[in-house]
Design brief:
CATH architecture of the largest domain in chain B: Orthogonal Bundle
Number of domains of chain A: 2
Number of helices of chain B: 6
Oligomer: heterodimer
Strand content of chain A: 15-25%
CATH class of the largest domain in chain B: Mainly Alpha
Helix content of chain B: 40-55%
Shape of chain B: globular
Shape of chain A: globular
CATH topology of the largest domain in chain A: Nucleotidyltransferase, domain 5
Largest sheet of chain B: 5 strands, antiparallel
CATH architecture of the largest domain in chain A: 2-Layer Sandwich
Order of helices and strands of chain A: EEEHEHEHEEEHHEEHHEHEHH
Chain lengths: 325, 205
C-alpha cells in the first residue's frame, strides 16, 4: 500500500511517500522568503516550477516508480488559495493518469497525525502552532469522531506574529528562528499578556513589541516578545491539559521547531506527570510525508470521498473533519 | 491542610477558618517560565482575583466570599456542589434551572462591570438545589469594554449545546439592560471569519 502525498499550502512544495505507515521519502522545495514575506502569485509560480522535480526526486528517494503508487493525497486547506491549487492540480493529474483514488487532506490534521504517529501516543492533546494557525486540539467522539478545538488564537497565528516582528526589526530571513537567535541573552521587559481561558490574542503584543524597537535594545525586545508569546501558549495548553485530563501532549507545526517553546511545554507537562513529544524538524516544517500518512489512513479506513470534496478550501477548519481511522 | 484539587495554575486546599469551611487557592510557581514574567502575573492575578471577588459579592453575584488574601494565595468561602460540565454530561439530570442561573449570574457580573474571562461550565459550581456559583476569577477584569463581555458569551457558547445556549442567552438578556449591545458585539466577533459557529453543534453541520 504505497501513498504519495503532496503539500503546497504555503511556501513549501513537498512530496512524501508512505508505505503502511513507514516513511519512504520526504522531498521538498521551498520558496525563498526574503524580507518581503510571501507574494501568493509568486509562491504559486514557484510551486508549479518545482513540482516535477520534487515529485520525481521523491520517487527516486523512495526507490519506486510512479506506477507503484496506490493512492494520492493532497492538501485541501487551510492555506493560500493559489498555492493550494497547484498541489490540487498535480494530485488530480497523477490520480487520473494512474487511475488511483485521491484524498483531500486537512493540513492541520496532517501535522497533528504525523506527530501522533511518531510519538506512538494513544490520545494526546495537541498544540498546533504555525504561521497562520495556533490551536489546542484533542479527539472527541461525539457527535462524530473529530478533533475539537479547545482553544485558539482570536487574531493571528504565533508564527505570523514572529515573522511580522522579524520584518519590523529588519531581520533576514524574516522568520521565527531569526527572532530566536536575536533573543539569545536578552533581558525581560514587561509586555501585554493576553490569554482568555484557553484562547489567546497576539496582535496587541506585536504592536507593543514593534513600538518598543525604537526605545529599547532589540535583543531585549525579541527576548521578551518570544517569552511572552510562548508563555501564553503554554498557559492555555496547561489549562486544556487540566480540563481534558489527558496524559500526553504533542506540539507540532512550524513554530514547534523552536527549542524554547518545546522546553517550556516539556517543563509544564512534567509538572503534571504527563508525557511530551515533539517531532524532528523535518516533520514540523510543512512536508508531503504527513499528507501521505493521513491519505493512507483515510484510504485504509474506507473514507468515502465525493468528487465535489476534491477541491481546495482556504479556511478548512480542523474541527470540521470526520476522523475515520 | 489537605490538597483537594489541582488546577492549571493553582492548588486548592481545604481548611477551617474561624468555624467556617474554607478553601485556600495558592498559585504555584512555574519554573519553566521566565521568572520575572511569571512572578508578576502570579502576584497581580492573585490581587486582582480577590478584588474581583469582592466586587462581585458587592454586586450581588453568587461567588465564594473572599476571607483574606496574601501575595500568592486567597482564602475564601468553600462552595459545595458539582461542576456544571459534569452535570451537563449526565443524561438524566434536568439542568435548565442551572442554565438560567448562569445567565442571571453573568448579567449581574456584567452590570458590575466585571468580565469573567473564563466563563465556561468548568468554572460554575451547581449545588443540590441547582443554584449556581461562579468561581475562578483569576482572569477577570473590571472593564467597560463590550468586547471583553462578549468573549464571556463566546466561551460559554462554545461549551453548550444549541438549546442550552439559547436558554442561557435568553436569561442573560432578561437580566441585563444592555444585553443586546453585548450580543451584537458577539456577532461582530464571530463575523471576523475564523471562528464562525465554533460550538458543540458546529461539528454536526
Amino acid at each position: 500500500m504505497v501513498t504519495l502525498g503532496i503539500e503546497s499550502s504555503a511556501h513549501t512544495f513537498g512530496v512524501g511517500i508512505v508505505d503502511n505507515g513507514k516513511f519512504l521519502s520526504n522531498k521538498k522545495d521551498m520558496y525563498a522568503i526574503s524580507d518581503k514575506g510571501m507574494i501568493p502569485r509568486k509562491v504559486a509560480d514557484h510551486h508549479s516550477d518545482a513540482s516535477y522535480a520534487v515529485i520525481e526526486g521523491s520517487l527516486t528517494d523512495a526507490g519506486i516508480s510512479l506506477h507503484d503508487v496506490d493512492s494520492i493525497g493532497y492538501t485541501k486547506g487551510p492555506g493560500i488559495g493559489p498555492c493550494l491549487r497547484v498541489g490540487e492540480l498535480a494530485a488530480k493529474t497523477l490520480a487520473s493518469k494512474l487511475h488511483v483514488p485521491i484524498y483531500p487532506v486537512n493540513h492541520a490534521i496532517a501535522h497533528i497525525e504525523v506527530t501522533k504517529h511518531l510519538s506512538k501516543f494513544k490520545d494526546p492533546l495537541a498544540l498546533y502552532v504555525s504561521g497562520g494557525n495556533s490551536q489546542i486540539l484533542g479527539i472527541v467522539a461525539s457527535p462524530f469522531k473529530h478533533y475539537a478545538v479547545y482553544g485558539e488564537t482570536f487574531d493571528i497565528g504565533v508564527g505570523n506574529m514572529l515573522d511580522n516582528f522579524a520584518r519590523a526589526a529588519n531581520l533576514n530571513p524574516a522568520w521565527g528562528s531569526s527572532v530566536s537567535k536575536l533573543a539569545e541573552g536578552g533581558k525581560y521587559i514587561s509586555m501585554p499578556y493576553n490569554v482568555k481561558g484557553m484562547d489567546f490574542t497576539f496582535t496587541g503584543l506585536l504592536t507593543n513589541a514593534v513600538k518598543m524597537l525604537d526605545k529599547a535594545n532589540h535583543k531585549d525586545v525579541a527576548f521578551s516578545l518570544q517569552e511572552t508569546a510562548f508563555s501564553m501558549l503554554s498557559e492555555a495548553t496547561e489549562r486544556a491539559l487540566m480540563l481534558t485530563s489527558k496524559k500526553e501532549l504533542t506540539v507540532c507545526g512550524g513554530v514547534a521547531q523552536s527549542a524554547r517553546l518545546a522546553d517550556m511545554l516539556k517543563g509544564m507537562v512534567h509538572m503534571h506527570k504527563a508525557k511530551f513529544y515533539v517531532a524532528p524538524n523535518e516533520y514540523n516544517a510543512d512536508n508531503g510525508a504527513m499528507i501521505a500518512l493521513v491519505a493512507e489512513k483515510m484510504h485504509m479506513s474506507g473514507a468515502k470521498i465525493n468528487d465535489k470534496d476534491c477541491n481546495v478550501q482556504q479556511r478548512y477548519r480542523a474541527d470540521s473533519v470526520c476522523i475515520t481511522w | 491542610m489537605k490538597k483537594i484539587a489541582e488546577g492549571a495554575e493553582a492548588d486548592i486546599f481545604k481548611l477551617r477558618f474561624m468555624g467556617l469551611d474554607a478553601i485556600l487557592k495558592y498559585r504555584r510557581t512555574k519554573p519553566y517560565l521566565e521568572k520575572s514574567l511569571y512572578e508578576n502575573i502570579r502576584n497581580s492575578r492573585t490581587k486582582n482575583e480577590a478584588k474581583m471577588l469582592y466586587l462581585a459579592v458587592s454586586g450581588g453575584a453568587s461567588v465564594p466570599k473572599p476571607i483574606f488574601v496574601s501575595r500568592y494565595a486567597i482564602c475564601m468561602e468553600a462552595i459545595t456542589g458539582t461542576r456544571l460540565d459534569m452535570i451537563l454530561a449526565m443524561q438524566h439530570v434536568d439542568s435548565i434551572k442551572a442554565i438560567h442561573g448562569i445567565g442571571v449570574e453573568l448579567a449581574i457580573l456584567h452590570s458590575s462591570m466585571i468580565a469573567h474571562g473564563d466563563y465556561t461550565p468548568a468554572n460554575i459550581i451547581v449545588d443540590k438545589n441547582m443554584k449556581v456559583y461562579v468561581i475562578d476569577f483569576g482572569l477577570s477584569e473590571y472593564t467597560f469594554s463590550l468586547e471583553d463581555k462578549a468573549i464571556d458569551l463566546l466561551l460559554m457558547k462554545r461549551s453548550l449545546i444549541e438549546k442550552d445556549y439559547r436558554a442561557f442567552i435568553e436569561s442573560y438578556r432578561r437580566h441585563l439592560k444592555d444585553a443586546n449591545k453585548v450580543i451584537a458585539k458577539l456577532e461582530e466577533i464571530e463575523q471576523r471569519g475564523r471562528y464562525q459557529n465554533r460550538s458543540l453543534d458546529h461539528a454536526s453541520h
